Each structure stands twice: as structure tokens, then as C-alpha cells.
Amino acid sequence: MEKALRPMHRLLVTGGCGFIGTNFIRYLLQDADFDGQIVNVDKLTYAGNPENLTDVAAQYPQRYVFEQADICDSEALKRIFDRYSIDSICHFAAESHVDRSIVAPDAFIQTNIVGTFNLLELARAYRTRLVLFHHVSTDEVFGSLGDHGAFSEDTAYRPNSPYSASKAASDHLVRAYHKTYGLPVTLSNCSNNYGPYQFPEKLIPLMVLNALADQPLPVYGDGQNVRDWLYVRDHCTAVWRIMQRGRAGQTYNVGGGSEMRNITVVEMVCDILDELVPPQNGRSRRELITFVTDRPGHDRRYAIDFTRIREKLNWQPEESFASGLRKTITWYLDQRWWVERVKSGQYREWIKQQYH
Ligand code: NAD
Ligand code: TYD
Q1: Number of domains within the chain
Q2: Distance between CA atoms of 74 and 181, rounded to whole angstroms?
Q3: pTM over cut 0.85
Q4: Does residue 356 carry a pLDDT above 80?
Q5: Which residues are within 8 A (CB) of 279 and not within 5 positions of it... i.e. 6 or more apart?
Q6: Predicted confidence (pLDDT) per residue in 7-32, tens digit
Q7: Mind telling me the catalytic residues?
Q8: Which protein residue's CA is at the shortest distance from atom 14 of ligand 1?
């Protein structure tokens, strides 16, 4: 272990109504050794769903607060910092979908770069009471691999999409604030997450829902692109381990040791669904797989060397891809209401009434 536990009592979590942020807040309040307060700051874009946390909000009224705010709004952030005497930050908020970044990169530049800069400036202003700024990032900053090798923390940054370029920029800013101003920061670069509460535009939930609706399953290009998959709860335990024990100024790669070709992932989704919900027409859902035009600049392969976090912080993933995928699919089957809510226009109206 590199360090003793950090004394974090009033933690600002950005993007806590999104996929990983929701899982992280649930983990911290319900299972982790954390007894402080969480202030969740989220703008509630299409990807943010405050209902994800309604039950924990009711369960922990003293320890959980939600504030709707844009991380690009410095004044709003300052009010929140003052009001709750924030002493640490875990920064998840981002525009996160590569395909959207190709069509409309503007919001990625604003939220991922300018928003991170705003948070860093605020952290600098409150430097004396700041225990830690943890920045959550992606392995996509490293670009694309050939058939061999894996990204280490020393791999040069070569982002290929507007999304990964914006995350790379934010990583550099965070690191620079440590070097220049001595801000206590840690960073994590993680591979593809999957699990409960993931917005159904990403590969796995999209395929689950399309398959259930008997819709085509669009696989980009030849389907041979490789991603490393990590069950979201394992990502949450890694982030918390780094926050507690990681060395200030240090980056940690986080991965699942589960490299899979996209086509294999989609076939596994089909097979698990066929078993859990036998198709009425008796035909395998694999027949719905449709190869479509490739994503521009589509990275071929990601793989993560997570030796540092394993050896220095004694972390490793618990879930295998097969068991995690089954759990995830079961969750989507059990939570049809959630899917209907996040996809419906009615839901956006509800958010407006609650928070505006
Ligand atoms: P997500 O899109 O599900 O959630 C993002 C959240 O941020 C949403 O709740 C959204 O409302 C909020 N948000 C967006 N813009 C905001 C703004 N300007 N101000 C305040 N809140 C804003 O994303 P996710 O998949 O949960 O990813 C979370 C973080 O983890 C991101 O930083 C992403 O880059 C990183 N990451 C994701 C993965 C993955 O596989 N999903 C892997 C590695 C790293
Ligand atoms: P995605 O979930 O968008 O994550 P990322 O682009 O951040 O890795 O996509 C995962 C992989 O699946 C990626 O190689 C693109 C591919 N993909 C498809 O083949 N079809 C789809 O409909 C989607 C959304 C992704």
C-alpha cells in the first residue's frame, strides 16, 4: 500500500446521475468504508437520471444531497463549494459517447475541457481545505492498439475521436494543476464499463434492448474491434481505492482483463437472452445481427495493463465478463420501467417539473 487512508468528509461527486456516477454513489453509501456526506452535482443532460438515486436519497437524507448544476457554471459551483464546505472531489461528469462526439463535438469541448478547468480552478481557490481531486478518465486517450500489447500508464496519448481528445485534454489539465500548483490529484484511465444504469446508446444495453424488441443489432464494420470490459462495480471499487490510498499526482490504469471482440460480445448477449427469454418465433436472436457502416476513426483494439493498481494498491476486478454480462442483462430485464423512463419524452418533462 502506498499511503494511509485520506480523511475525506464532504465529497463532491460530479455526474452522479449518470451510469458510473450512480453506481459509485450507491457503492459509497451502501458498501464502502465512507461515512461522510456526498454532494452530487449534475446538469441532467439526456444521460443523467436523478431517479437512479431516489431510494438512496430517502435512505441517507443526512448524507446525500443533489444539486442540479452545470460544471461550466463557475458561480454555481462556487456556491456549492461554500454551502457544503467541500473537501474532496470525484469528477465523473462528462459527455461520454464517441458517436455523439463525431456528430456534435461542441458539448464535449465545453463539458469535458472547460468544465474540468472550472472545477480545477475552484479546487485551486479552495486549496487549503482540499484533500483530493480525483479525475475519472478513459483508456481511449491512448488511441488504438495493433494485435499485441496493452496500454500502460506510460503509453503516449494519441486520442482519435473528439471524445477521447477532450478527455485527453482534461487529463493534461489535471496533471498540470498538480505539477504547477501542487493540487492533490489522482487520475484513473479505465476500459469499457458495463452494468446497471448504463444509458441504452452504448453497445451492451443497446444490443439487449434491440434484441428484446426484435430489432436489428447494428455491428460496426467487421465486428472484429476489441474492447476490454470491466463490470461497473469493479470500476467503483478501483476509484475508491485510488482515492483512499493512491499517490498524489499519480495515474492508475484500470481494466477488467477481459478483452473481447465486439461480435463475440453481441453473440453472447443474444445467447443469454435466448436462454432467459426464449424468442417467441423460435429463432436465435443472433439472426438479428446486422453489419453496418463503420464508425469514422474507429479504434481497432484497446487493452489495459493494470499492474500498477494491482501491485501498489492491491486492487483487482472481482467479476468475470460472463457473470457480469448475465447480471447486467438480468438487471435490464427486471428494470424495464427504468428503460421506459430514460427513453421517454414524459421523463424529460418530469425532470423539468422537479428541478426547474
Ligand atoms: P454518462 O454519460 O452515463 O453520465 C455522464 C453524467 O454527467 C450524466 O449524468 C450527465 O447529466 C452529467 N453531465 C454531463 N455534462 C455535464 C455538465 N456540463 N455539468 C454537470 N453534469 C454533466 O457517463 P458515464 O459512462 O457514467 O461516464 C462517467 C465518466 O467516466 C466520464 O468522465 C467518462 O469519460 C468516464 N469513463 C467512462 C467509461 C465507460 O465505459 N462508460 C469508461 C472509462 C471512463
Ligand atoms: P461503445 O459502447 O460506444 O463504447 P466505446 O466507443 O467508448 O468503446 O462501443 C463499444 C464498441 O462497440 C465500439 O467498438 C463500437 C461498437 N459499437 C457497435 O458495433 N455498434 C453499436 O451500435 C455501438 C453503439 C457500438
Answers
A1: 1
A2: 19
A3: yes
A4: no
A5: 214, 285
A6: 999 999 999 999 999 999 999 999 99
A7: 139-140, 163
A8: 94
